[in-house]
Amino acid sequence: MKKIVFGIAFILFFSFMLVSAINMRPFGEPTFSEMDDYFIKNAQSEVGANNVVTSIVFDYRGFDTLGEATVLFTTISGIIALFRRVNK
Amino acid sequence: MSSFVEIIHLATLTIIIIAAFLTVVFKKLLLAVIASSVVSLLLSLEFYLLHAPDVAIAEAAIGAGLTMAIFIFAIRGTR
Amino acid sequence: MKEMSKIVKNITKLVYGFIIIFGFYVIVHGHLTPGGGFQGGAVVASAFALLLISYGQLEAKKLLKVDIFSLLESCGLTAFIVIAFLGLGTTFFYNFLANSGGWFGNAVTPGINPGDMNTAGVLPLMNMAVGLEVFAGLGIIVLLMAEGAEYTNKEGEHRNDR
Description:
Chain A is mostly helical. Chain A has helices spanning 2-22, 34-46, 52-60, 62-82.
């Protein structure tokens, strides 16, 4: 019984993955490209950095990086609290 | 040119699937950790082939370096 | 944790400085080449993990201290938020140094060029802040994990030296 359920789930999942892989767009042609074109055209003159990825990560999408840094800080606070000093 | 890149893609993805299968199959823990590290390293090579060097550096440093180190600490701790 | 063989220790002594220097290169050149704060910090932390695995815990603890790493991590996050607040004249996260002619303020020529270190305004400072935070934080994770593995080895014996 369990094997049959797992087999049906596997076949469904695999067929969905296969269909979406067949219908995938070709590499390098996204569906909506206005935002990408704006970044590629204007990022170098607005921010002044040659690396457009860094200018997006730290300037256009700065709040995302702030949240990532906060998540890392919270994780490390938790790990320090987990391995804290044991007082008998 | 294009076919050469496609051959490298196919070889990388095939070795990734084989290494992921070996990660589950191996009985010794250290060998399983090394196989999962091989998965991360080849995944970073795949990111580099897809023109994303930022993600490739992060994946190679964290997935293949730090995760393997932490797993080795855990294995030595449980011994 | 015990130390590894003599070959591993000598190769580590030869190589780990270069790994740390490469990590700081990735951090500092984050606005010119691929990489940035997070990636460079992860590379530096992997050098610390190599040191800790090959040299055992007691030798490596003379070099790596949890308190100093904790201080560096807090300084990194605070510097990031302070730099973000400095642009509050217009908006939060405003790049007030770019194209201003002062520090990191040279204008960049559009198109493909070899790159100038003195550009991109506030981005190199933020890269350094995030890189400091990330390498200190991941170093703390690796150090404390090694210490926890050591602690579970000796059950029944409470070790208070951290």
